[in-house]
Write a structure and sequence with these properties.
With about 110 residues, the chain is α+β, with helices and mostly antiparallel strands. It has a single domain (about 15-100), classed as RelE-like (YaeB-like fold, 2-Layer Sandwich). Helices cover about 35% and strands about 25% of the residues. The protein is built from 2 helices and 4 strands. Strand 2 and strand 3 form a beta hairpin. Helix 1 (about 20-35) runs antiparallel to helix 2 (about 40-55). The protein is elongated.
Length: about 110
């Protein structure tokens, strides 16, 4: 009996926009220099880049972005600490362009 053949997974390449790189610099710079917490800034920066590598491997596992609803569901969001990483899937690329800060509401 033949084993069922598996379809090769689509490989994506993540591309950070200038705005995304600027936002990472602003976020980590604020934490390091304004809040005087350089180790936390390193932790946040590493978490962003770890999230990018996971998005690159599995872009469709995160939910559709509720801030930008579309019919084709091309915008997705992933939470990283208190920020949403919002990205657009355009095969063979993933374009990361925005970070959106959110706060939890107190009850």
């Amino acid at each position: 009996m033949d084993k069922p053949t598996r379809k090769a997974a689509t490989t994506y390449q993540i591309r950070l926009s200038e705005n995304a790189v600027k936002n990472i610099d602003e976020i980590t710079g604020y934490i390091a220099f304004i809040n005087h917490q350089p180790l936390n800034a390193i932790k946040v920066g590493d978490a962003f880049f770890k999230a990018f590598s996971k998005i690159e491997k599995y872009p469709h596992i995160y939910k559709e972005c509720s801030l930008i609803p579309t019919k084709s569901k091309m915008y997705r969001q992933k939470s990283c600490f208190k920020w949403y990483i919002i990205y657009k899937i355009v095969p063979p690329q993933i374009i990361c362009a925005w970070y959106y800060s959110f706060r939890k509401k107190a009850i």
